[in-house]
Specification:
The complex is a heterotetramer, with 2 copies of chain A (230 residues) and 2 copies of chain B (210 residues).
Chain A (H helix, E strand, L loop, with lengths): L9 H5 L7 E4 L9 H10 L4 E4 L10 H6 L3 E6 L6 H8 L4 E4 L2 H12 L4 E4 L13 E4 L2 E7 L3 E11 L5 E2 L8 H7 E11 L19 E4 L13
Parallel strand pairs in A: 1-2, 1-8, 2-3, 3-4, 8-10, 10-11
Antiparallel strand pairs in A: 5-7, 6-7, 8-9
Helix pairs in contact in A: 5-6
Chain B lengths: L1 H5 L7 E4 L18 E4 L3 E7 L17 E9 L2 H9 L5 E4 L3 E3 L4 E2 L14 H7 L3 E4 L11 E2 L12 E5 L3 E6 L2 E7 L5 H7 L4 E2 L9
Parallel strand pairs in B: 1-2, 1-5, 5-8, 6-9, 8-10, 12-13
Antiparallel strand pairs in B: 2-3, 3-4, 6-7, 10-11, 11-12
Classes of the chains: A alpha/beta (230), B alpha/beta (210).
Chain lengths: 230, 210, 230, 210
């Protein structure tokens, strides 16, 4: 038996993403953000997207290109404080923004990846984020239903991959990538290096290959991946 | 029967082979086949079974057999392993059975008063794998059919089984019930009908043998 | 800043486990089962325990010693088919057994570790395991509430550890260990080797140290850890 | 104030230092202190901040600052990171604030119509850390007290704050409201009372300074 080869080109990797799709994108700040996949999506010009991402990056980086290009109808996120454009678009009504507590966003995504319908939590129960959410009593305590949050596509950045789609993340670049890499119908990973099958130690793989559909090796790391000097 | 079942595995699939007969399917998968074998204890990319002398004490499948890795194997925990099963990433599972009904209901975890091993990961495999195939003897040790109109034993999952491989036949579960597809060499259609405790649709013409 | 040292002796590690405690124990078959911690618990003689474990091991191994010694009042598990004593004790009413679907047991434990009240799933909804469980409708589909399942203590087996409690598991020895290592008030890990701080690569750690309370280095691997010749 | 806050960190703790003022606390923790610093983007065991030239592009804290590892650092994903927060493994968090009420309510994520950055991980930190300490200027840029009877801004979490460090004072949140503990050198009790938009219990005798 051999494991399937899922390597492809950047263009083919994202070619099926069509107008109106829901796309989750890994990353927390720079680490783990798939800047090249995002750039390809900008070049493809796909519109009316629902984007699920921890943050909106900073001006001139990552998701900001999609916002500037008018491709995002809706953003599900936890924090957009470093992107003035995102806040402006939200305030102007040019983009719907749904805020979620950060760990609950991670758990909702993970629940979708884990084939669960949702989780029960009291996070935010005393806040406006808790308003209107379905309540369930568990052990005498009121909890909120947080529904699983899946997507049509996930865009993932890995430090290393193999052709089967096993992924390893570097440092704090894990963040939302492992959960998102389980939670979309089609999971697309860019990797800084694609090593031959068997070169990644089976014990150190963060995302097992069966979760991943497509792997693209980056030919170069653009400036967006570098240390940000503020 | 096991060799025949192996032919239902298609290129590119992620497959879970349950404890018992299904585990033997691995021996009939071609070496150049592109397939990823999963076991729910936390491994994707299972290679051939290992003799005791060559076994890694930390490398078993869910049935406790010592297995080997292949190039590209990954290990993970039980939560991730069942995320794979429930999340739609498992293309096919082959499971054993106590009973299968003509509606595709599966019972394989409890014989009240006699034997209650527990379902293990069977409920999730049966309920969430994209395709569920059962491998079983056609009748139990007392000669009673395992293919029935309604399961009398506690269910593992309802309406999940698509196809059954037995020592006597290959039988599909259709919206109308059991349908005979293939028959073991040397047996007649009547043999299979007699051993099956539910209506069995028999196609016209010659039935393929295996 | 330095990270705390949590290494201790086997006796001290389990000394606080008292009669009536709920104890979750890692392992799926032999890999990942903390046989030495279990043996220490047998020697300590603690009674009336609720044990949470995937399986009941095999005759003469691991949890079977606790059963034989009459220390277990209740077992929450997924499969006991390889332990005739467990089945006998269940049938005779000498021990209460609660069955759970395997992945749902993992998720219930993980939910406790993740500070969630529970998960929503339809696994087993058509079976007797689904009877009597609270139902919630999510997106028009009926789901069951599976409550988080925590414990007073977790007994964990790691291949490698460091004094802070960072843990790495070998091969298929992960199984229930990572979830359980988050889900108990007191998490006790035995390790085949305790390496100096900084010797485990930060990217390859399966259980981060903050989840772990006590670390015991094994002086030898008893026969129970070896390959089982059936 | 930041140096004083650092003294509230005890040996053996796992601590999360929020964005802004709290991040600066790290510079005042003794080198031989046994403490594990956590950041919610997925790191436990944070070492000193790194200058840009020495920075690892993949190694930041939740505020985006480049940090270094220590011996025993681990990296993990967001789900595990907040499992640590919600699951009771975070002993202490220090957070910034727009407003803190005398009941311990915290508002730090939204100023309607003006600035809505989002809560990030703040709700979970505020609601689930075993101890929540706020570090903030005593008043906002317009001179209004951030310590209030009732928060008028949207809440991050209710009744969560145990202690407040400001540029003017150290104030505990008690069941009866704010209680003055310490005062900045050079200020009087009256200065603090005037700058506080809620009742402030003042202990008898000399109040320690910092």
């Amino acid at each position: 038996m051999r494991l399937p080869d899922k390597t492809t080109t950047m263009r083919d990797a994202i070619g099926e993403i069509t107008d109106g799709a829901t796309v989750m994108i890994g990353g927390f700040g720079v680490p783990g953000t798939p800047f090249c996949l995002i750039d390809a999506l900008v070049q493809q010009g796909t519109k009316d997207l629902t984007i699920i991402k921890n943050d909106a990056n900073e001006s001139g980086m990552g998701v900001d290109h999609l916002l500037k290009n008018g491709q995002v109808a809706r953003l599900i996120t936890t924090h957009i404080g470093l992107n003035p454009r995102a806040i402006e678009m939200m305030n102007a009504g040019d983009m719907a923004v749904e805020f979620c507590a950060q760990g609950i966003l991670a758990e909702r995504i993970r629940a979708a990846g884990a084939g669960l319908a949702g989780i029960l939590t009291d996070i935010g129960i005393d806040t406006e984020l808790g308003e209107g959410k379905q309540r369930v009593s568990v052990g005498g305590h009121s909890q909120m239903v947080e529904a699983a949050l899946g997507a049509d596509f996930a865009l993932i950045h890995a430090g290393q991959a193999d052709p089967f789609g096993n992924l390893c993340y570097a440092g704090t670049a894990q963040n939302f990538n492992p959960a998102m890499a389980m939670a979309a119908n089609t999971v697309i990973a860019e990797a800084e290096v694609v090593r031959p099958l068997g070169q990644l130690a089976p014990n150190t793989i963060h995302t097992p290959g069966p979760f991943v559909d497509r792997v693209v090796e980056l030919t170069e790391l653009t400036e967006e991946y570098a240390v940000v000097r503020r | 029967m096991v060799a025949r079942a192996a032919r239902d595995i298609q290129s590119g699939m992620t497959v879970n082979l349950g404890i018992g007969l299904p585990t033997q399917v691995i021996e009939h998968i071609a070496a150049d086949m592109q397939v990823c074998l999963h076991s729910e204890n936390g491994i994707a990319g299972i290679g051939p079974a290992q003799p005791y002398d060559a076994a890694d004490r930390n490398l078993i499948d869910a049935g406790g057999a010592y297995v080997s890795p292949v190039a590209g194997t990954s290990y993970f925990d039980s939560a991730v392993s069942f995320a794979l099963v429930r999340g739609g990433r498992l293309d096919l599972t082959m499971l054993g059975a106590f009973q299968v009904s003509m509606h595709g209901d599966l019972a394989n975890w409890k014989i009240p008063g006699l034997f209650t091993p527990g379902a293990g990961g069977g409920m999730e495999l049966a309920q969430k794998a994209k395709q569920v195939i059962v491998l079983t003897t056609h009748t139990d040790r007392k000669g009673r059919s395992k293919l029935v109109q309604e399961c009398t034993l506690p269910l593992t999952a309802r309406g999940c089984v698509a196809r059954i491989f037995t020592d006597m036949a290959v039988i599909d579960v259709t919206p109308k019930g059991f349908a005979l597809c293939e028959i073991a060499a040397g047996l007649t259609t009547d043999d299979v009908i007699k051993a099956t405790d539910a209506p069995l649709a028999v196609p016209r013409g010659k039935i393929p043998t295996f």
